[in-house]
Please model this.
Amino acid sequence: MKSIDTLIEQRFSPKHFADRAVSEEQLHQLFEAARRAPSSFNEQPWRFIYATQEHPEAYQKLLSCISEHNQQWAKSAPVLMLSLAKKHFSRNEKPNRHAWHDTGTAIGFLLLKATEMDLYAHQMAGFNPEKAREVLGIPNEYDPVAMMAVGYLGEEENPNKLRKPVNEIAFTGNSHGLL
Amino acid sequence: MKSIDTLIEQRFSPKHFADRAVSEEQLHQLFEAARRAPSSFNEQPWRFIYATQEHPEAYQKLLSCISEHNQQWAKSAPVLMLSLAKKHFSRNEKPNRHAWHDTGTAIGFLLLKATEMDLYAHQMAGFNPEKAREVLGIPNEYDPVAMMAVGYLGEEENPNKLRKPVNEIAFTGNSHGLL
Model:
């Protein structure tokens, strides 16, 4: 069993995926993790449209929404996914200020669950939201948020991306560090 | 050691905190988890302003930004926090479409790390962002995102909030379930 620290440390966003399928059952486990995230008024604004390479037509649709640059590596992933955020609260139709934020939290849970299963995910801002809406028939109420490639690790990669130290992101009692 | 499934299952947002302090070292561990989250162009847009009850002036400032309804229970928390999102990319000053989303992912990591440490967090949308900006002197470049109360569990609570099943949040290849 891996500790949460190990999962957080191990996770990274690869550009090379192994030629190894990810099953529907495995994907179900990822969504099980995502669905337990907290959300404003328990709205659960997150949605996911996904396709495996076993469904080439659906897979190609998702792939076609990704920028050409990202397609180069993303097309090796056995699974492509699009995350969506529901823009208004279902209970009163008011705008949900935290729809994207809460979708991000659900993604955080999904990513760490994936790492536990030796799966890796790489999210992309580089895709065409309007095209996604058209190609996938996404209702106006949902924002296309991010594309994601999921699979097993392919060739070796250096995962180390520099991160800001804690004293550059957390400040006690005041905002001086932000200035 | 707790599995990721256990952490996800155990986590909930309590309304009663024990009269037990959370140390700076523990808070540092939470931010260590948050800072490793993925973000668009590795921007790391998340920031946190926090105060413990050991610093009453700073604590009261944060508390004063919370809605009266939420203050009733939040004031029992040994730590209050405000998450912030940096609105533009530092590298080119363009708007960061994923600033809130990525902040949400960092929060996801923080929440599961907290659970591993037997800490619980309760986020609040019910606060006054304009007041927070004023009271805490937050530069315009940062959006106040959510307040958070953190501490050990107080009295027993029923944590069970209903969640949508996977087949209501994840759809293979199309958006039919969204309609």
Chain A touches chain B through 83 residues (CB under 8 Å). The mean pLDDT of chain A is 96. The radius of gyration of chain A is 17 Å. Chain A has one domain: 4-155.
